[in-house]
Amino acid sequence: MDGAVLLQLLLNALSLGAAYGLVSLGFALVIGATGAVNFAQGDLVMAGGLLTVALASLVPVDGWLLLPLVVLAMAGLGLIVCALAYLPFRNAPPVSVFVSTIAVGIMLQNGANGFFGAAPRAGPPLLSGGEASLGGLVLDRQSLAVIAAAVLLAGGTWLLLHRSQVGRRMRATAQDPEMARAMGVSTTRTIALTFALATALAGAAGLLLSNRYFVTPVEGTNLMLKAYIAVVVGGWGRIGGALAGAMLVAGFEVIVSSVLSYPVAEAGLYICVLLLLLLRPQGVFGEALGRRV
Fold first, then answer.
1. Cβ atoms within 10 Å of 25's Cβ, excluding its own
2. Cα separation of 208 and 203, whole Å?
3. How many whole angstroms separate alpha carbon 54 and alpha carbon 248?
4. Tens digits of per-residue pLDDT, 129-162?
5. In Å, how far are 1, 47, 101, 105 from 40, measured between CA atoms?
6. Pairing outcome for strands 137-140 and 131-134
7. CA nearest 107: which of 87, 82, 81, 83?
C-alpha cells in the first residue's frame, strides 16, 4: 500500500469518524442529562439525511448552505421527541423510555419509507469540487469539508457547554438534578434543550453522511449501534471519550474493509466490542464516575 492510498484511507477514516462523532456526542449528551438511552438517535440521523435530500431537491445548492436549515429543523424535532418519548415517562421505570424511543425510531423509519421510498438517496456534497492539492498531495475536498464542519460543530457544542449560562445549567442538571432544581434551574426546560441539541447534531451528521454513504429509511439502526459502541469504547458518561470512540470505530471500519471487506469489518467490530466488555467494561478511557458531562 503506497503513501497516497494510505493517506486517502486516513482521510476517509477521519471524515467518517467526524460524522460518527457528532452522532455519539448527541447520544452521550442525552445519556448524561437523563440517564436514559435515546434509541431513536440513529433514526434521527437518517431523518436529517433525508431532510437534506428533500431540501436539495427544492434548492439545489451545496450542503454547507443547507446545514443551518437542517440543524434548526432537527432541533425542533428534538423538542418533539423529548415531549413524546421522554417527559411523559421520566418518573416511570427506565424501560419505559427504552421502549418509547424505539417506538419513535420505528415511526421515523415507517414515515421515511412511506414518503421517500426504500431506495437509497444521496444528498448534495458539502462543498463542490473534487480534489485539493497540499504540498504535492492530492486530497479529497469533500472529506476535508466534512472534517472541518464536524470540528466546528463539536467545538461549538463544547463552548456552549462550558462557556455559557445555558451550558452550565445543562451540566448542573446532568450532574445533580435535585441540586439544580434547588438552585432555580428548570430541569424540564434544560432536558428539552439537551434533546434539541442532540437531535440537531444527529441531523448535521445525517447531512454530512448523505452524499458519500447515501440514506435509506432503515439505516438508522446501524448508526445507533455505532453511536452506542463509541460511547461504550470511550467510557460511559465521557463526551470526549464518545468522540474518541467514534474515531476508533470509523478507523477500524475503513482500514479493515479496505484490506478485507465491509462485512468482515462489521463482524470484527462487534467481536472487538464484546472482548472490550469482557476485559475492560469501563471502556478504553474509563467511566466518568460522579459526573455525566
1. 27
2. 9
3. 32
4. 666 665 555 667 888 889 999 999 999 999 998 8
5. 39, 10, 5, 4
6. antiparallel
7. 81
